[in-house]
Amino acid sequence: MKIHLVDTQATMNLGIVLGQTLTAGTVILLAGDLGAGKTTLVQGLGKGLGIIEPIVSPTFTLINEYTEGRIPLYHLDLYRLDPQEVVNLNLESYWEGIEVIPGIVAIEWSERMPYKPSSYINVLLTYGDEGSRQAEITPFNCTINEYIATI
Ligand SMILES: Nc1ncnc2c1ncn2[C@@H]1O[C@H](COP(=O)(O)OP(=O)(O)OP(=O)(O)O)[C@@H](O)[C@H]1O
Ligand SMILES: [Mg+2]
């Protein structure tokens, strides 16, 4: 499914709908060039989940956890890591809910992952005309709410 995102607010809105509808245990793998809008989408996700705390890029902290919303949000950014470092993070504990409360796991620079969960939603953000963006959403072994397409 391809969605045209005309401006920053449109990217936010897509995140908001995802945050309102996705269930605990969902993994969102975000891919796309520098500045494509990955963090913006996660900021929307946070809003949709009811998180008031500002969502900031975890480029240096690696993982930011937000627990004040409907369900927890785990926001990761793998930009600075190589595949072996990613393996060492034991990311599966997040999506398997081992020692963490199940929530939504959103991973920026998921291209860096040498392995993927058994089910996830892939969101590829690309640059479009006149500074806009496009999101290509592909669910793997899971479903997404159809009204996302109406945004
Ligand atoms: N649909 C859109 N149209 C135009 N600008 C957008 C759109 N979505 C987001 N932006 C803008 O793009 C810029 C970069 O966004 P953002 O930080 O979310 O990208 P990113 O993919 O997380 O970048 P990085 O690769 O550095 O992590 C921001 O200024 C944001 O407002
Ligand atoms: Mg980012």
From TrEMBL:
Q: Does the keyword Nucleotide-binding apply?
A: yes
Keywords carried by this UniProt record: ATP-binding, Cytoplasm, Magnesium, Metal-binding, Nucleotide-binding, tRNA processing
**InterPro entries per UniProt:** P-loop_NTPase, T6A_TsaE
Pfam families in UniProt: TsaE
Instruction: Specify whether Cell inner membrane is a keyword of the entry.
Output: no
* Top-level lineage group: Bacteria
Where does the protein principally reside?
cytoplasm
**Gene3D superfamilies on file:** P-loop containing nucleotide triphosphate hydrolases (3.40.50.300)
Intracellular or extracellular location(s): Cytoplasm
UniProt family annotation: Belongs to the TsaE family.
Q: Which PANTHER family match?
A: TRNA THREONYLCARBAMOYLADENOSINE BIOSYNTHESIS PROTEIN TSAE
Record protein name field: tRNA threonylcarbamoyladenosine biosynthesis protein TsaE
Q: Which organism is it from?
A: Anabaena azotica FACHB-119
